[in-house]
Design brief:
about 400 residues; alpha+beta; Arc Repressor Mutant, subunit A; Nucleotidyltransferase, domain 5; 5-stranded mixed β-sheet; about 30% helix
Length: about 400
């Protein structure tokens, strides 16, 4: 027998009138109407207390709610969302707890409900994840502040006066702290190096720098993709960690930061470069000092980041190789000379010293810092680069 839907006053009235008879079989009557005995007794008691008005459907809302939000709290939640329109309820709740320490902090679900009712929630379209084209593991995982820094140029946009704005961004991978977000006159190695000198002076040196394979971080024609900039990093004792070409997801956290920057800044371009940089500086300050991160246990980056214990020395570095190596300085043209034979290496290493280890006859193995660049053959005056980066 299918379950009956009991929602009519006529049905309830018929039930209680028949239940009031002395010869009625109450259990059988409940089965006939498709309700439980508990429901039957409830209807009968309400009829005896209030008559037919007692059978009217009652609201299930509690008479009072001790945890119900006050108007002031709702307004504060809405104002926080308006101040940070791209932050979710979890981050906003953390900021609320820090700003209003004397109040009981509403739950995350309460924040979601308030924002949804206020029309401040952007419901995302769901789609299935693609299983191809991704790498699930990374060669180096940051284990402490200054273990791994990530660097990239944010895609450019125009200010309102039609000037191109393309900031260089440097970020500590462990703490998520943004160490640099500054538009430079150009992307030439010398210009980027000056900015890194400023960041190194302020924060010390990292152990590893992760970058993509674009200029000025890598060059296709150079041994191991070295550029003047990345070669300088190596002389400072910094290791290189390059993502694979065409795989920006391998530097996903940095790309995510760029996405937030584009959504919050690029969509509201300033009138000129000066004001755009000022707006970016404000954004970085909020990102580092106000915005909680789930990966940090809802701490802000500045609560986690500490300056490096490896200070930056701006003086030129003298590279030291094993005593049995022959040491040669790369000329400004990118060549070295050995046994009166000039061999082209790379202009990226001009002014720096390489180490040559003889491996038989006229053949030498070439090293730069800790990297094996390739092999020299004096017989043919050729240099064969090591494959890979």
């Amino acid at each position: 027998m299918p379950w009956k839907v009991i929602n009519s006053m006529d049905t309830k009235t018929e039930f209680v009138l028949r239940a009031m008879r002395q010869d009625s079989d109450f259990c059988g009557l409940c089965r006939e109407f498709g309700i439980s005995r508990k429901t039957g007794y409830k209807w009968k008691e309400r009829f005896l207390e209030d008559g037919l008005t007692g059978l009217v459907e009652r609201s299930r809302r509690p008479a009072n709610s001790p945890n119900q939000l006050g108007e002031d709290q709702v307004c504060r939640i809405v104002r926080l969302k308006q101040a940070h329109p791209h932050w979710g309820p979890r981050k906003l709740r953390e900021v609320f707890a820090k700003q209003f320490t004397s109040e009981t902090v509403p739950s995350e679900s309460t924040f979601k409900r308030v924002l949804d009712k206020a029309g401040l929630v952007e419901h995302r379209r769901q789609r299935k994840c693609q299983e191809t084209g991704t790498r699930l593991t990374r060669a180096v995982v940051a284990e402490r502040p200054n273990h791994v820094w990530t660097v990239d140029f944010k895609g450019w946009w125009y200010t309102l006066d039609r000037h191109r704005f393309e900031p260089l961004t440097i970020r500590d991978d462990y703490s998520r702290c943004v160490l640099c977000a500054r538009a430079l006159p150009s992307a030439r190695s010398e210009v980027v190096r000056e900015e890194f000198q400023r960041v190194f002076t302020q924060n010390g040196l990292p152990e590893i720098i992760r970058s993509d394979n674009g200029a000025p971080f890598a060059a296709v024609s150079s041994p191991l993709g070295l550029t003047r900039l990345s070669a300088w990093w190596l002389t400072l004792g910094i290791d290189l960690d390059r993502i694979r070409p065409g795989k920006p997801q391998e530097n996903g956290a940095h790309e995510r930061m760029h996405r937030d920057m584009a959504r919050e800044l690029e969509s509201a371009a300033e009138v000129d470069l000066v004001k755009q940089q000022a707006s970016l500086d404000v954004w970085v300050k909020a990102f580092n000092n106000e915005r909680p991160h789930e990966a940090l246990g809802m701490k802000v980056p500045r609560d986690v980041y500490v300056t490096s214990s490896r200070p930056f020395d701006p003086n030129p570095v003298q590279l030291v190789y094993p005593f049995h190596y022959e040491v040669r300085k790369v000329t400004t043209a990118g060549c070295i000379s050995i046994d009166r034979v000039d061999i082209m290496i790379s202009q990226a290493l001009s002014g720096l010293h390489v180490g040559l280890e003889q491996i038989g006859g006229n053949r030498y193995s070439m090293w730069f810092c800790r990297l094996h660049l390739g092999e020299l053959d004096l017989t043919t005056a050729s240099f064969r680069k090591t494959r890979g980066v």
